[in-house]
Amino acid sequence: IERTLSIIKPDATRRNLTGKINAKFEDAGLRIVAQKRIHLTPAQAGIFYEVHKERPFYGELCDFMASEPVVVQVLEGEGAIAKNREVMGATNPADAAAGTVRAEFAESVGENSVHGSDAPETAAAEIAYFFSGLELVG
Ligand code: GTP
Ligand code: MG
């Protein structure tokens, strides 16, 4: 059974969309085995998104992620990484399939409501960045 790190981003927490987004995850068979609401500092967001530090939108992305609270969570299920990304939809909401989180809720390519890990190695590192083993209740 696989686990992935999910973040409900500031544009979505601001609009009280946490419950609607969680319903989509749960309907897809993903179990929320850990969850907390936190307010990242720009430096903490910068470490999380370090892989993107050479991209032109890095500063904007870090400022956005630190602008308001986020909900970080661990989702568990068969093929959880791919399944979560399917439920999320494409990065740019204009390209996201109907019914996905980003098609329904994302405001732009930057403020796109959710993050999901993209591979087993990144999932493990991202989960460890936010949660201790004791906080994961499967
Ligand atoms: P994550 O699950 O958040 O990692 O999204 P992703 O894997 O679909 O996209 P990617 O890893 O390529 O980009 C990470 C995040 O950077 C995106 O989710 C966006 O929030 C942001 N981002 C990507 N492209 C752009 C862009 O062109 N402009 C801005 N402002 N932000 C972008
Ligand atoms: Mg990504």
TrEMBL record:
The active site is at residue 115. It is found in: Cytoplasm. The keyword Magnesium applies. Coiled coil: none annotated. CDD domains: NDPk_I. ATP binds at residues 9, 57, 85, 91, 102, 112. InterPro entries: NDK-like_dom, NDK-like_dom_sf, Nucleoside_diP_kinase, Nucleoside_diP_kinase_AS. Its EC number is 2.7.4.6. It comes from the Bacteria. Pfam families: NDK. Its cofactor is Mg(2+). Major role in the synthesis of nucleoside triphosphates other than ATP. The ATP gamma phosphate is transferred to the NDP beta phosphate via a ping-pong mechanism, using a phosphorylated active-site intermediate. This is Nucleoside diphosphate kinase.
